[in-house]
Design a protein that fits this description.
187 residues, alpha/beta, 5-stranded parallel sheet, 7 helices, globular
Length: 187
């Protein structure tokens, strides 16, 4: 598939902080680049400090942040770019809104328990949330609503990043977004 034949789509990685979203997004980014595809990666933390600077962590602000990421993703997707989003996106309704807005949308639920995410947490955010020092933390004292119709569920407690990435490549191949599901990038 040449760049001129490439169809735009968005892969939206959602899940708790520390579940493995950014790791898989980065790996997928390298895979799609190896296929000579036009690809952009939108990380929730980076978007929050730039495009959504000034927003807090209320439900309304979180939804606004997700809708902004969705809007940018939709613009890129309609211009035949492969978009990779890595964002907690805790609320199902906001994710469903961006699904509708984008159209060519592949939701990937990166699932890991709060306990496992806390174990992986190098920033100590879960410890602060458990102690009450940090409030409004998704999965601790703020809800995370798992997807009801994700195209793919990745269980990162049960498998490593390489196997998880292969599931994503298999799904993108099945949906016709990539020609081959074989791994091209080495990590």
């Amino acid at each position: 598939m040449t760049k001129n034949e490439q169809k735009g789509f968005t892969v939206w990685f959602t899940g708790l902080s520390g579940a493995g979203k950014s790791t898989l997004a980065e790996m997928l980014h390298h895979e799609l680049r190896k296929r000579d595809m036009r690809v952009e990666m939108l990380d929730g933390d980076i978007i929050r400090t730039n495009l959504s600077k000034g927003l807090g962590f209320s439900k309304e602000d979180r939804d606004t942040n997700i809708l902004r990421i969705g809007f940018v993703s939709q613009l890129l997707t309609r211009n035949n770019v492969a978009v990779i989003v890595s964002a907690i996106s805790p609320y199902r309704e906001a994710r469903n809104q961006v699904r509708w807005m984008i159209g060519e949308f592949v939701e990937v639920f990166v699932n890991a328990s709060v306990e496992e995410c806390a174990r992986r947490d190098v920033k100590g955010l879960y410890a602060k949330a458990f102690s009450g020092e940090l409030t409004g933390f998704t999965g601790v004292d703020d809800p995370y609503e798992p997807p009801s119709s994700a195209e793919l569920i990745i269980e990162t407690e049960d498998e490593g990043p390489d196997k998880s990435l292969q599931h994503v490549l298999d799904k993108l191949h099945e949906l016709g977004y990539i020609e081959e599901n074989a791994r091209l990038a080495e990590f």
